[in-house]
Amino acid sequence: MKVALDRPPSLDKASSELLLAIGQLVRKLRSQSNPNEMNLSQMSALARLEQFGPMTTADLSRAEAMKPQSMGTILASLEQDGFVHRQPHPTDGRQILFALTDKGKEERRQRGIAKRVWLAAAMAKFTPAERQTLNAAIPLMKRLGDG
Amino acid sequence: MKVALDRPPSLDKASSELLLAIGQLVRKLRSQSNPNEMNLSQMSALARLEQFGPMTTADLSRAEAMKPQSMGTILASLEQDGFVHRQPHPTDGRQILFALTDKGKEERRQRGIAKRVWLAAAMAKFTPAERQTLNAAIPLMKRLGDG
DNA sequence: TATTGTTATACTCTATAACTATA
DNA sequence: TATAGTTATAGAGTATAACAATA
């Protein structure tokens, strides 16, 4: 039986709207950046290494929906900046484990990154109820990104 | 006075989480694409033209957080595909108004675009309550993208 | 002189292809 | 033969710089 009141938008409509919102927001975020600042992919790889401990290029690339060669580039840049370091795999000579350095852990705690500063400032303009709505949606978006 | 129970995450924490979620989701979305399919920027420009009517390159670029030269490229590709057409500005000879063609309006209604199909399928796995949470967050993300 | 739009060029991020080394 | 990683190259998307036309 169909309910006429407070009908939620269709999946088609909702997914279409979400698509547009994500696109605009990511362009806005990308434009908020200081020279030599990490991009979203580098931040994401660093966060995952902190959460799950040392990982290989292949595992990280799968987790971040990216080709291994692309993840290799990202890890090379993070290594050059001293945020991660390599350690040999204990049993498989082919594999290389990447782990956070102390500098990498510190970087994760940095509040000065332009993208974070801009986003926090933008969210600060929301009402408490709006912030709660957005917070509740974050894990859902994470699941979309993982799936 | 501080409240200890059900404390919401700090703005720093929330913005950091949102940053990561957006990054992963946008990469996932970008990977969902058929040959010659529109990208998120093209979809966004098309949607805005439908919502607000004919606009100039400069206005669109401001609205979409993009440089006028970049928007010019996007509009040129949309024009080549027959989704938009040019019309002269009534009073200012420098400006060019871009408007949706019938083909462009039809494209907006297409449900077959890979990104939309993937996203709708992923959202279909959510519970009704989760879908409602996500739907409520969409206008908030739009405001973040606009601001 | 300021603004609109165009053209040319370069940078960032990610993908594809070909290769080496280990399993 | 299959998998992990590297190197080289190419593509998509956007930016910067220089320019012409109109205001």
Write structural notes for this entry.
2 copies of one chain form a homodimer. The first copy, chain A, is mainly alpha-helical and 147 residues long. Chain A has helices at residues 11-31, 40-52, 57-63, 68-80, 102-109, 114-124, 128-146, and strands spanning 55-56, 84-88, 96-100. In chain A, helix 2 crosses helix 4 (68-80) and helix 3 packs across helix 4. In chain A, a hairpin with a 7-residue loop joins strand 2 (84-88) and strand 3 (96-100). Chain A is globular and about 60 Å long. The mean pLDDT of chain A is 93. Chain A has a 3-stranded antiparallel beta sheet. The interface between A and B is large, with 57 and 57 residues. The structure holds a DNA duplex (23 and 23 nucleotides).
Short key terms for the protein model shown above:
homodimer, 147 residues, mainly alpha, three-stranded antiparallel sheet, 8% strand, DNA-binding
Shape, per Cα inertia axes of chain A: globular
What fraction, in percent, of the residue positions of chain A are helical? Answer: 55-70%
| Content-based structural category of chain A | mainly alpha
Count of discrete alpha- or pi-helical segments spanning 4 or more residues of chain A:
7
**Subunit arrangement of the protein:** homodimer
Brief write-up:
The structure is a homodimer. Chain A has seven helices and three strands, in the order ααβααββααα.
